[in-house]
Design a protein that fits this description.
Layout: E1 5-6, E2 13-14, E3 19-20, H1 38-47, E4 53-55, E5 59-60, H2 80-93, E6 98-104, H3 124-127, H4 130-144, E7 148-153, H5 158-163, H6 179-191, E8 198-203, H7 214-224, E9 230-234, H8 262-272, E10 278-280, H9 287-295, E11 300-301, H10 305-309, H11 313-320, H12 331-334, H13 340-347
Parallel strand pairs: 3-4, 4-6, 5-6, 6-7, 7-8, 8-9, 9-10, 10-11
Antiparallel strand pairs: 1-2
Helix pairs in contact: 1-2, 2-4, 4-6, 7-8
Length: 351
């Protein structure tokens, strides 16, 4: 858990095998979409709690790509100064931590009116422009001082939707499959410096009828693997969004303990080989689960919710073996990175 690991296809090393998977804090200037200074304290808190890589919450690549109003972005050149200020302050206190900019677009899940959305239903010439939009955001990430960039291709957003047969009904070159994702990663690679880490957060299973299957995820992973420093595997979609916030009582679909995507990971590991660093999200609450996954197909693990419940959960785990107190209620999805249980315990004077 707490040993360093060198990322693939670059000379960058994470100080531990623990990644804070991307989750938005909602700390955004509503006028500009730039992160506010309060983000600095959150990142420092993470960096001081055994986190090797911090993935930002999804940073939109275009103004019409937000899935919630308080979402930050790398959508134009004016926001880089604010990102740079946050990163400079974090690095001054925690120089060893790596911070990756996760770049995304909500597409049909955007809060914009349908006529203003960029979706897979738009004309071919508009879809063909998407890789450059991501590349521009990646360039801004470099200029801001991020240590890497993560292309978000999960949870039903634009690039995830492009992989899904039940969402992407195109019959041209951008039909359901890895082509658009491949072009985006290629475009990003073309604008970042040589050896700059590129990661991808990829659905390994949509868990919806007619959606992305593990076999289709294998095709996508195999296509982009040679360009990646890290592949972070996850699953599921936010559509319908209510399903994310029903917690343990929602539908029983994810009633498993431990790593949710072990079977899917095994398929992808076999396809991409041992050279690519694989990380996994979902279900990591105990030291035994984490170590079991690291002894198997994963090189790194990428929880998120446990840090919201207790920012020092890994420190406590290392000291006493205490598991995360996160109960998987998922209210943090609704409340943009605020743990409802933690707030209640603080209000009661119990934390």
């Amino acid at each position: 858990m707490f040993t360093p690991i060198k990322l693939s296809n670059c000379n960058v090393t994470s100080s531990t095998r623990m990644i804070r998977s991307g989750m938005a804090f909602g700390l955004t200037d509503p006028k500009t979409g730039a992160p506010t200074p309060e983000v600095t304290d959150r990142y420092i808190e993470l960096a001081q709690s055994k986190c090797g890589i911090i993935m930002t919450g999804g940073l939109v690549v275009a103004q019409n790509g937000k899935d919630h109003q308080s979402q930050s972005g790398l959508h134009d050149d004016t926001v880089t100064k604010a990102h740079a200020a946050v990163l400079s302050a974090v690095k001054a206190k925690c120089p060893e931590v790596l911070v990756f900019a996760q770049i995304t677009h909500a597409a049909h899940l955007s809060i914009d009116a349908p006529e203003d959305q960029l979706t897979l239903d738009t004309a071919s010439h508009d879809v063909a422009k998407i890789p450059q939009i991501y590349a521009d955001a990646a360039r801004r990430a470099v200029e801001s001082g991020y240590d890497g960039v993560e292309v978000h291709a999960a949870h039903g957003f634009l690039l995830s939707a492009s992989l899904s047969p039940c969402v992407n009904k195109r019959d041209d070159e951008f039909k359901a499959g890895p082509e658009l994702l491949y072009r985006v990663v290629c475009a990003v690679k073309a604008v970042v410096p040589e050896g700059f880490p590129i990661a991808c957060k990829l659905n390994s299973n949509d868990w919806v009828e007619g959606g992305l299957t593990p076999e289709l995820a294998v095709d996508a992973a195999r296509r982009i693997a040679p360009m990646l420093a890290l592949l972070e595997l996850t699953g599921g979609t936010v559509d319908p969004s209510l399903d994310c916030t029903r917690g343990v009582a929602r539908t029983g679909k994810m009633g498993r303990q431990g790593y949710y995507y072990a079977k899917e990971t095994s398929l992808i590991r076999a396809a991409v080989g041992k050279e690519l660093v694989l990380a996994g999200t979902g279900g990591f609450r105990t030291q035994a689960d984490i170590e079991s996954a690291l002894d198997g197909d994963l090189d790194m693990v990428a929880p998120s919710r446990p840090w919201l419940r207790n920012p020092r959960w890994l420190v406590d785990m290392e000291d006493t073996g205490t598991p995360s107190a996160c109960i998987n209620c998922n209210a943090c999805f609704r409340d943009h990175g605020v743990c409802a249980v933690r707030q209640k315990m603080i209000a009661m004077g119990k934390e």
